[in-house]
Amino acid sequence: MKILFDTNVVLDVLLARAPHAEVAVQLINLVDRGRIQGVLCATTITTIHYLATKAVGRRVAKKHLQELMAMFEIAPVDHDVLSKAIDCDLPDYEDAVLHEAARAVGVAGIVTRNGKDFRGAVLPVFSPKELLSGIVASDA
After folding, report:
1. Statement: residue 69 has pLDDT above 60
2. Which of 60, 91, 96, 126 could form a disulfide with 131 if both were Cys (CB 3.0 to 4.6 A apart)?
């Protein structure tokens, strides 16, 4: 299953944001073990670099990015993605860019803690708990 991870889910892990980090860590572990094919939007990488550099310094931020980029596929953001995001029926352009980048690489869905931001999405949108529960149920 190919899933695009919203920036907030990745930041929950990197910044150990309780109570959200526990489920997010489990999902990223599933990516690491190959149970989920994880995808990050290119804009997620730039946002994480910016925030992680401020929080933990440049050297540690670089290490985090290298680990993420080794584990996740990166969905590019190009002219086509940006143009489609303008016409997308999502209220926030940044979320629309993420959604259209996800569509461009053929994901099965998006995992986010902010599902309301993706009202009007064409792709299925899961909370971290919903996605984890669905994967656990399919393994049973």
Report:
1. yes
2. 126
Where residue 125 falls (left for φ over 0; alpha for ψ -120 to 50; beta otherwise) is beta
Token code pair at residue 45: 């990488």
**Do residues 41 and 105 make contact, with C-beta atoms less than 8 angstroms apart?**
no
What's domain 2-139's architecture? Answer: 3-Layer(aba) Sandwich (3.40)
Peptide bond into 124 cis (omega under 30): no
**What residues does each domain of the chain span?**
2-139
- Alpha carbon 26 to its chain's center: 14
25 pLDDT band, cuts 50/70/90, is very high
Report the alpha-carbon distance of residue 116 to residue 50 in Å, rounded.
25
